[in-house]
């Protein structure tokens, strides 16, 4: 086993990695930006070093400084977490060249999966189904128009170097294509310094289902089942679960086998994710994420495997101690991403100091967090405060536990997305497993702080009852009504739309 690891990240994922490393007796080295000097990952690590000011470009993205710290303090390996430098092939290569161990796949694997057209070519060659469309960038509007006819409208323009949904444009017909083509190129150039775009079929109501894979340096690759991540907003996942409510054992086998083939085609080492779009029983390769994912805990809860520990073991050269047949899924797990955003105001980022924090606990509840009371939440970093994850014997129990855990969670000082998640847990389509990547837009009521139909009925009923009570016994209503100023009792205020603000 490695003796030490530098964690090149912050927030909940840095804490998660440090926890995994400590359990294995691996010395942990944290790096941090100036405002993060008292952050949880700094407190949890054995050692911590400042690498620059608040801006990520001057701190968490400074690969040179991070490698220098690793050398200076004798850290053997670097774990990038997700985001920041995790999928920068050039950084992985610099780490390798510095004689340090990179916790992730080889830099060549990261590079080949970072280019969407190259990834599509390699997957097609490996027999993995891809979304119908081009496998090479398209040159010029004329060629794009021609290709679109072959694929069939609607089509999706995508940046070859894409990521984070940038440079993506859906096109319904030939008249829309020229403008969208130029816009996609411009956006791709601005975001990635590369204006290459290509076309694929636009699926109208797919689900996002991904397979977790794990490979070692001895050529073994297994898959650890799927995660359903269809509940997204602007291509950002909000709720994830495992298993998916629609994946049968046969489909799991088919998708898992395809994911393992995808991994083998690029000599995959470590933990990775093969993302698919799923529609009408068919699945199509979307992309491969060459790192640990935010949503990895749901897989950990249903498989009983510690993915961070396995990343460290694989990086130390250990072989997987189990085979595909040994992987069994038990129960159901759900994750809600708790962010510092106001779901009732367009997910507007919220900043401030976390002045109060009550964390849920009890059976089947896990909190992977990156904050503590007194922690300043700024606009410099990702708004993810922590992840609430529940595990139950079946999906119903996992949902009920999540609702209960969300009711227990109190984050004071900043707005959070928790109320949105609480709404999802009660929503009928979610409870019935009827999901697609359009879920959020199909349920605008979840983004509306106003009371639901059901809540309005309760309010109306309550008012009527109070009226009757008042008529029959003035004494009884005096106890029930609150301060008299609003004329609302405390429990009426609790369900009143204004009470949330
Ligand atoms: P990025 O790398 O920019 O995040 P992806 O290719 O992973 O882009 O796609 C991000 C999201 O966009 C997917 O999760 C899905 O919601 C949507 N999407 C991507 N491709 C398609 C498609 N062909 N049809 C419909 N939606 C798509």
Please, how many domains?
4
CATH topology of the largest domain: D-amino Acid Aminotransferase, Chain A, domain 1
Cα radius of gyration in angstroms: 25 Å
Structural class designation: alpha+beta
Can you give the mean pLDDT? 93
Number of helices: 18
| Cross-sheet strand order for the largest sheet | 13-12-9-10-11-14-21-19
Give the fraction of residues assigned to helices. 25-40%
- Tally of extended strands? 22
What is the CATH domain class of the largest domain?
A: Alpha Beta
What would you call the shape? globular
Tell me about the largest β-sheet: 8 strands, antiparallel
CATH architecture of the largest domain: 2-Layer Sandwich
State the CATH superfamily name of the largest domain.
Answer: ATP-grasp fold, B domain
Bound molecules: adenosine-5'-diphosphate
In percent terms, what proportion of residues is strand?
A: 15-25%
Distance between the termini: 51 Å
Describe this structure in words.
The N and C termini lie far apart (51 Å). The chain has 501 residues and is α+β, with helices and mostly antiparallel strands. The protein has helices at 11-23, 40-44, 63-73, 89-97, 107-114, 116-125, 141-151, 177-192, 249-265, 296-303, 307-315, 395-408, 418-426, 428-431, 439-442, 453-472, 474-480, 490-495; strands at residues 4-7, 27-33, 47-52, 77-79, 101-102, 155-159, 169-171, 197-201, 207-215, 221-233, 236-242, 270-279, 282-289, 332-339, 341-342, 348-349, 352-353, 356-358, 365-369, 376-377, 384-392, 410-412. An eight-stranded antiparallel β-sheet has the order 13-12-9-10-11-14-21-19. It has a five-stranded parallel β-sheet with strand order 3-2-1-4-5. The protein has a three-stranded antiparallel β-sheet with strand order 7-6-8, with helices on one face. Helix 4 (89-97) packs antiparallel against helix 5 (107-114) and helix 16 (453-472) packs across helix 17. The chain has four domains: 4-103, Rossmann fold, CATH 3.40.50; 132-201, 2-Layer Sandwich (Dna Ligase, domain 1), CATH 3.30.1490.20; 207-447, D-amino Acid Aminotransferase, Chain A, domain 1, CATH 3.30.470; 453-500, no CATH class. It is globular, with a radius of gyration of 25 Å. Mean pLDDT is 93; it is low at 477-501. The chain has 18 helices and 22 strands. The site of adenosine-5'-diphosphate (ADP) has 19 residues, from strand 8, strand 12 and strand 13. Adenosine-5'-diphosphate binds at residues 131, 156, 162-165, 200-203, 206, 208, 232, 235, 275, 277, 286-287, 437.
């Amino acid at each position: 086993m490695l003796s030490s690891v530098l964690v090149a990240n912050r927030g909940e994922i840095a804490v998660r990695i440090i926890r995994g490393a400590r359990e294995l007796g691996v010395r942990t080295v944290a790096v941090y930006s100036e405002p993060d000097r008292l952050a949880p990952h700094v407190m949890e690590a054995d050692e911590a070093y400042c690498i620059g000011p608040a801006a990520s470009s001057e701190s968490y993205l400074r690969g040179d400084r991070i490698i220098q710290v690793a050398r200076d303090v004798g850290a053997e390996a670097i774990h990038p977490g997700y985001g920041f430098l995790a999928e920068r092939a050039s950084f992985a290569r610099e780490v390798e060249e510095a004689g340090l161990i990179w916790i992730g796949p080889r830099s060549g694997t990261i590079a080949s999966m970072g280019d969407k057209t190259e990834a599509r070519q390699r997957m097609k060659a490996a027999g993995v189904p891809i979304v119908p469309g081009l496998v090479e960038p398209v040159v010029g509007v004329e060629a794009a128009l021609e290709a679109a006819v072959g694929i069939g409208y609607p089509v999706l323009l995508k940046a070859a170097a894409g990521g984070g949904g940038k440079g993506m444009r859906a096109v319904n017909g030939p008249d829309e294509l020229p403008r969208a083509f130029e816009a996609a190129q411009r956006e791709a150039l601005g975001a990635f310094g590369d204006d290459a775009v290509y076309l694929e079929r636009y699926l109208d109501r797919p689900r996002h289902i991904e397979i977790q894979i794990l490979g070692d340096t001895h050529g073994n690759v297994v898959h650890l089942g799927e995660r359903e991540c269809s509940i997204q907003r602007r291509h950002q996942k909000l709720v994830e679960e495992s298993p998916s409510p629609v994946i049968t054992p046969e489909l799991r086998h088919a998708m898992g086998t395809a994911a393992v083939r995808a991994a083998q085609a690029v000599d995959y080492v470590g933990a990775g994710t093969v993302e698919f779009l799923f529609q009408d029983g068919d699945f199509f390769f979307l992309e491969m994420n060459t790192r640990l994912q935010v949503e990895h805990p749901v897989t950990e809860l249903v498989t009983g495997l510690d993915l961070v520990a396995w990343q460290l073991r694989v990086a130390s050269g250990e072989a997987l101690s189990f085979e595909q047949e040994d992987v069994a899924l038990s129960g159901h797990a759900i994750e809600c991403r708790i962010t510092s955003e106001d779901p009732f105001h367009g997910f507007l980022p919220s900043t401030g100091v976390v002045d109060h924090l009550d964390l849920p606990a009890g059976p089947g509840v896990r909190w992977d967090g990156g904050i503590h009371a007194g922690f300043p939440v700024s606009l410099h970093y990702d708004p993810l405060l922590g992840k609430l994850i529940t595990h139950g014997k079946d999906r119903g129990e996992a949902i009920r536990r999540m609702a209960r855990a969300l009711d227990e969670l109190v984050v004071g000082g900043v707005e959070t997305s928790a109320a949105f998640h609480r709404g999802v847990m009660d929503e009928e389509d979610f409870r019935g497993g009827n999901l697609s990547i359009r879920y959020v837009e199909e349920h605008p009521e979840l983004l509306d702080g106003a009371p639901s139909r059901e809540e309005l009925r309760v309010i109306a009923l309550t008012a009527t009852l109070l009226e009757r009570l008042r008529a029959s016994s003035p004494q009884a209503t005096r106890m029930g009504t609150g301060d008299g100023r609003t004329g609302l009792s405390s429990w009426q205020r609790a369900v009143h739309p204004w009470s949330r603000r």
